[in-house]
Amino acid sequence: MADHDQHEVAVAHPPSYTANEEIVVTDDKTAFEDVKDLSPTADGQEPNEDEKRSLRHVAENLPVSAWLVAVVELCERFTYYGMSGLFQNYVQHPLDGSQGRGALGMGHQGATGLTTFFQFWCYVTPIIGAIVADQYLGKYKTIVWFCIIYLIGLLILVCTSIPTALEHGAGLGGFIVAILIIGLGTGGIKSNVAPLIADQYKRKKMAISTTKKGERVVIDPSLTIQRIYMIFYGCINVGSLSLLATPYMEKYIGFWSGYLLCLCMFAVGTLVLLLGRKFYVVRPPQGSIITDAFKALGMMIVNRNMDAPKPSWQLEHNGNNSSVPWDDHFIDELKRALVACRVFAFYPIYWVVYGQFSSNFVTQAGQMNGHGIPNDLMQNFDPISIIVFIPLLETIVYPLMRRLKIPFRPINRIALGFVVASLAMMYAAIVQHLIYSSGPCYGSPLCDASKVDGSAQGNNIHIAIQTPAYMFIGISEIFASVSGLEYAYTKAPPSMKSFVQSMYLLTNAFGSALAEALTPAAFDPAIMWMFVGLACASFIAGIVFWIVFHHLNAQEDDMNALDAEDDMPEVRRESESRKE
Fold first, then answer.
1. Contact between residue 545 and residue 346 where contact means Cβ atoms under 8 Å apart
2. Do 60 and 224 touch, CB atoms closer than 8 A?
3. How many CB atoms lie within 10 A of CB 254?
4. Residue 178, CB half-sphere, CA atoms under 13 Å: how many?
5. 27 domain-assigned
6. Does the CA dihedral 408-414-417-419 come out positive or negative?
7. Residue 572 confidence (pLDDT) above 80
8. Residue 210, strand partner residues
9. What are the beta bridge partners of residue 104?
10. Crossing angle, helix 347-354 and helix 410-436, to 10 degrees?
């Protein structure tokens, strides 16, 4: 894009039909000007209230630029999961291979502690990326700079994991430095790439359209955003299938080879980001928007009134409004963002459950008879289940529910995600019980009695029995995690998309902190009861979540409509004029 001030680029229009429904779509600005329709509302125009209720709502296809962003995220997640999926073995087992493939030999608790810290760090740093993007560089430039940081961390990880470096004691120090740098890089990317992909879709208001079969439908931007994040999350999980390759590279070549593959793939993603620049819709930073938000929040707290920061409130109660650099609409936007942040308050419990699949589930798999399957390969059943179920939901289940006029709002989907996650934990507890009930080591897996050629083997229970636990986790992500991304974008003010996204990601950090507190329970046989406790906590959280927030389902369309009223708010321009 040659001129940032125009805020838009030439992006290919969406195809004239969606994946599951053929509908005629044109640009908002020319919305079906040549169509002669005798229906109450012309094609391309905003439907009236009766049409919103009676006509079927449909989604549009993604523009080309959104697919390019999805490819970048695919490459980043390929790197993240392919690399971090090896961390548990890398840290837990010693280099001599006496207890399995490893490098640092810090034991089960040490490995769980470090991998959990890495997850925590990766979800704290998005705040930094959000502030940089929203106030200084914009989303696109921020992603580019944090990609460079990410590459540096990956290079350190590769260099310090080669056998010579490990033998000379560089492994632990290199690993810690690498995860700190990589965590900073991935945080800066994560807070911006999710809102960037949704920014590529420019329609903000509902519009009437007629399918090629003659059915009049409502093009619903909220459904398109839902589709965008379903596809986005599908790409994330296609990328995470890197764990099909890196465990075998770890087993037959060495950890360094798996890390090197991840480095190369991330370099490809960075190249796509740079070469596709002219296709992206890029929004400029909004100045001191985040610091203004925090100032406004402080005024709300001090005055115990959500409207206290409004200039109109200041004028009424203080006789002037010159002390605040925003207008009333900015405060309305901020209040809407706070609704999203309230919803996110339950997520740390979910993320504790989710985090088990890359830490304690890996250790659990190592306690079973692998039959030649690496224990860290089992993680792939999480993304595989997502890749299978997302198309089923998007092309069959959700369209059928819309045809039957059955709403499935984000709050309901999130609550269901919590409940399904509880099933994963309960199943994991059952598997752990079966492990303890099997020889040769029973309640002390990997004991000396299981050693073959000097290497400890798992108890006599097939590793494949763990598969449903990963599948339940994957299905829960489709409902809880995807809906969280969607909610963070649609409920955030246009000027604070990255920041609210970072608040959503921060809940993952809180979840990692809770998981860190549970690390002392990561030993046999206490871990079985930890799984039971997490199952109960996730189920109860899902039920309480729905009871507390289900009323927001009725307000969904009204809250989403605020973006249509002010896609690129005038708040900053009014702010600057006041300052002048």
1. yes
2. yes
3. 17
4. 23
5. no
6. negative
7. no
8. 216
9. 94
10. 40
Tokens linked to 520: 């002392």
How many domains is the chain built from? 2
Most confident of 100-104, 367-371, 576-580: 367-371
Cα(first)–Cα(last) distance of the chain, in Å?
A: 30
Phi, psi of 100 (to 5 degrees): 120, 175
Confidence of residue 20 (pLDDT cuts 50, 70, 90): very low
Which residues on adjacent β-strands are paired with residue 217? Answer: 56, 209
| Residue pair 286/135 in contact by the 8 Å Cβ criterion | yes
The residue with greater pLDDT, 376 or 559, is: 376
Report which DSSP code applies to 100.
B
d(CA 107, CA 112): 9
Vertex 274, ends 268 and 280: CA angle to 5°? 120
Bridge partners, 58 (sequence order):
219
Residues 258 and 297 in one domain: no
Closest listed residue to residue 328, CA positions, set 311, 304, 306: 311
Give the residue among 291, 282, 361 at the shortest CA–CA distance from 325. Answer: 291
Helix runs in 162-203, H state only: 163-167, 171-199
Task: State yes or no: pLDDT of 93 exceeds 90.
Answer: no
Q: What's the CATH number where 68 sits?
A: 1.20.1250.20
Question: If you average pLDDT over every residue of the chain, what do you get?
Answer: 82
Tens-place pLDDT, residues 292-343? 888 888 888 888 888 888 888 888 877 665 577 788 888 888 887 887 788 8
Question: Does residue 21 sit in helix, strand or coil?
Answer: coil
Looking up tokens 């992909």, which residue turns up? 197
Q: Which DSSP letter does residue 396 get?
A: I
What token pair was written down for 50? 């009766």
Residue ranges of E strands in 91-136: none
User: Helix, strand, coil shares of the chain as percentages rounded to 5?
Assistant: 70, 5, 25
Q: Please give the residue that has the higher pLDDT: either 167 or 359.
A: 167
DSSP code, position 444: S
Domain with 236 in it: 57-286+332-571
pLDDT > 50? residue 29: no
pLDDT surpassing 60 at residue 19: no
- Per-residue burial over 64-75, b = 16 or more CB atoms within 10 Å of its CB, e = otherwise: ebbbbbbbbbbb
Q: Are residues 351 and 417 in the same domain?
A: yes
> Per the structure block, which two tokens stand in for 435?
């492990």
- Asked whether residue 390 is assigned to any structural domain, the reply reads yes
Could you tell me which of 361, 509, 520 has the C-alpha nearest to residue 425?
361
> Is the model's pLDDT at 6 over the cut of 70?
no
Residues 298 and 413 in one domain: no
Together in a domain, 452 and 422: yes
| Whether the predicted model's global pTM rises above the 0.90 cut | no
- Check whether residue 317 and residue 346 sit in a common domain: no
Q: How far apart are CA 435 and CA 374, in angstroms?
A: 17
Q: What are phi and psi of 217, to 5 degrees?
A: -135, 170
Of the candidates 233, 232, 225, the residue with the CA atom closest to the CA atom of residue 557: 225
What's the whole-number mean pLDDT along residues 76-87?
91
If asked whether residues 383 and 293 sit together in one domain, one would say: no
Q: Rounded CA gap, 483 and 489, in Å?
A: 10
